[in-house]
């Protein structure tokens, strides 16, 4: 069973006259596997937040359909979902414990379990030492962590996080990363929207990249960042360069080295053979692994 599955999901926002104005999400076909951490990426305005809002029932699709946790969205299904918005908001006069208690009551949580659960979550997000400090005095990072705790109150099977590490320092980001991995170990599915690509690369099993409302790339981190660039250090003539060009996707000169893009690493021995048999002097062939940021920029700038 997929935790999230969409079929031609589309959202068009209309203007005040009821005419189509903005195509926010266009025929989105997406499958998020149960128990994985999935990174949902894209530039500002790509349609990520609109997609999340549709999955939560906050915005209705123009067309298409989707299921969450194997079912059509309903009140029953929503109780199995945790959500952290990009900018969580709480009544300013609550302290951390009072805020979570308030939301636990809304969930209808058993009072005998409520206090223990709140204590566990505050410790989990490193807010257990805030005492009676009011939310109005919290930093943005503290509010992010409180929002994450609130999203985990109901022990959700699916957690949807919109920029969970926004406003956090490096230690806070590591704490959130460790928490996400802990959730995964429990079998929880995490759907993560973030602009901090280094964190996504460290944390996610798979990622999808959205551009202009369309899914333009999807795969595991290894699949998307596979080593398809090779740096060649060699003394070669134009004849050898021409032979290399026939074997690779692209060739770029950078000083005294050659940068080539290939389909897979199996072609490297062929490149070495071309250079040596052509009379060139091969010094080094160095595969280069692209970062997720490289892939992201390459996709969105096309």
What features would you describe in this structure?
With 302 residues, this protein is α/β, with parallel strands linked by helices. The chain folds into two domains: 1-222, P-loop containing nucleotide triphosphate hydrolases (Rossmann fold, 3-Layer(aba) Sandwich); 226-290, Alpha-Beta Plaits. The chain is built from eleven helices and 13 strands. A hairpin with a 5-residue loop joins strand 1 (2-14) and strand 2 (20-33). Helix 9 (238-247) packs antiparallel against helix 10 (268-277).
Annotate the secondary structure layout.
Elements: E1 2-14, E2 20-33, E3 37-41, H1 48-55, E4 63-68, H2 75-78, E5 81-84, H3 96-107, H4 111-124, H5 140-151, E6 158-162, H6 170-185, E7 189-193, H7 197-203, E8 206-211, E9 214-220, H8 221-224, E10 229-235, H9 238-247, E11 250-254, E12 257-261, H10 268-277, E13 281-288, H11 292-300
Parallel strand pairs: 3-7, 3-8, 5-6, 6-7
Antiparallel strand pairs: 1-2, 1-4, 8-9, 10-12, 10-13, 11-12
Helix pairs in contact: 3-4, 9-10
Descriptors for this entry?
302 residues; Rossmann fold; Alpha-Beta Plaits; 13 strands; 35% helix; 30% strand
- Order of secondary-structure elements: EEEHEHEHHHEHEHEEHEHEEHEH
Q: Average pLDDT value?
A: 89
In whole angstroms, the N-to-C terminal distance is 34 Å
Largest sheet: 6 strands, mixed
Count of helical regions: 11
Total beta strand runs? 13
Summarize, please:
This protein starts with a strand and ends with a helix. It is built from 11 helices and 13 strands. The chain has helices at residues 48-55, 75-78, 96-107, 111-124, 140-151, 170-185, 197-203, 221-224, 238-247, 268-277, 292-300, and strands spanning 2-14, 20-33, 37-41, 63-68, 81-84, 158-162, 189-193, 206-211, 214-220, 229-235, 250-254, 257-261, 281-288.
């Amino acid at each position: 069973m997929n935790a999230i599955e969409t079929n031609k999901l589309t959202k068009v926002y209309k203007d005040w006259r009821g005419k189509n104005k903005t195509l926010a999400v266009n025929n989105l076909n997406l499958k998020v596997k149960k128990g994985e951490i999935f990174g949902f990426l894209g530039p500002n305005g790509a349609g990520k937040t609109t997609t999340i809002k549709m999955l939560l029932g906050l915005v209705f699709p123009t067309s298409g359909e989707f299921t969450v946790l194997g079912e059509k969205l309903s009140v029953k299904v929503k109780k199995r979902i945790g959500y952290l918005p990009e900018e969580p908001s709480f009544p300013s006069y609550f302290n951390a414990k009072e805020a979570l208690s308030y939301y636990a009551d809304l969930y209808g949580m058993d009072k005998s379990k409520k206090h223990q659960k709140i204590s566990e979550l505050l410790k989990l997000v490193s807010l257990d030492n805030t005492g009676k400090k009011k939310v109005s005095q919290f930093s943005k990072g503290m509010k992010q962590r409180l929002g994450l705790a609130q999203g985990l109150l109901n022990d959700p099977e699916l957690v949807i996080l919109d920029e969970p590490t926004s406003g956090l320092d490096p230690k806070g980001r590591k704490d959130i990363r460790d928490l996400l991995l802990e959730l995964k170990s429990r079998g929880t599915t995490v759907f993560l929207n973030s602009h901090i690509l280094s964190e996504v690369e460290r944390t996610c099993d798979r990622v999808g990249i959205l551009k202009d409302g369309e899914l333009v790339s999807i795969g595991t981190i290894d699949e998307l960042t596979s080593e398809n660039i090779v740096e060649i250090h060699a003394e070669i003539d134009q004849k050898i360069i021409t032979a290399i060009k026939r074997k690779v996707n692209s060739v770029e000169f950078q000083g005294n080295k050659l940068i080539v893009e290939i389909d897979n690493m199996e072609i490297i021995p062929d490149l070495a053979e071309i250079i040596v048999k052509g009379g060139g002097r091969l010094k080094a062939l160095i595969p280069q692994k692209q970062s997720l940021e490289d892939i992201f920029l390459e996709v969105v700038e096309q």
